[in-house]
Amino acid sequence: MLKFNKHHVTNGVEKARCHYSLDNRVDGRPCVTIYAKDYDNKLGALFAFEDGVYKNETDMRTDYFEAGRVVLFEDHPLYKQARSRAVSFI
Description:
2 helices, 29% strand
């Protein structure tokens, strides 16, 4: 069970610092995007049970580093919980 807090997402044991963004897609599809604040894999570890939700396009060969992100759409079971938390902080 994940809990969405103002500055982090946690499963009760591990936590990943993050910030939220709402409906930031060009195609207009409603979503909650959770951006990791740190360059570790903590956010990815929290969402490891969800195949394809976590994205990190870091390429060390070209010196491009990305903190990682999770995009939750309306059909995702955690969408409503994440959206209500993100709306209350924006």
